[in-house]
Design brief:
The chain is of the alpha/beta class. It contains 3 helices and 5 strands, in the order αβββαβαβ. The relative contact order is 0.18.
């Protein structure tokens, strides 16, 4: 299992079929606030993941709302199955309550959008 597949399946808990991992694209995109960039990971033209390092970007509610809207819009316009936002930080527990609230406000009842607050150590080198 390659590091991206391990991250997607093991860390994020996605149940993507094997063939999805034959196509993986990783690039950087500016955030809505242009204060920092996030990593954009596209797996098999099905799963869109934005990875944002909380240290390089103060996760303000308005910026997070914009980022969630951008990810959901990209997912819908391009026909992807899911959008996941990963916030990487030193202490995920302390950040997760405020971030989860802002994410919930932005995503509403969208069952194809998910938030993960993770320790940086769980990120594969390709997206860290």
């Amino acid at each position: 299992m390659n590091p991206i597949e391990h991250f997607v399946r093991g860390t994020l808990g996605c149940h993507c079929p094997d063939e999805v991992f034959q196509s993986i694209s990783i690039d950087r995109v500016g955030t809505a606030a242009d204060a920092a960039s996030c990593v954009r990971l596209l797996v098999g033209n099905r799963l869109l993941i934005y990875v944002l390092d909380a240290a390089s970007f103060r996760v303000a509610e308005s910026a997070l709302v914009d980022l969630v809207a951008r990810g959901r819009r990209e997912r819908d316009e391009r026909g992807y199955n899911r959008f996941r936002l990963v916030i990487a930080c030193d202490e995920p527990g302390s950040a997760s309550i405020a971030v989860q609230h802002a994410f919930d406000e932005a995503a509403g009842d969208d069952e194809r959008a998910h938030l993960h607050c993770l320790p940086r150590a769980l990120l594969p080198a390709e997206v860290a």
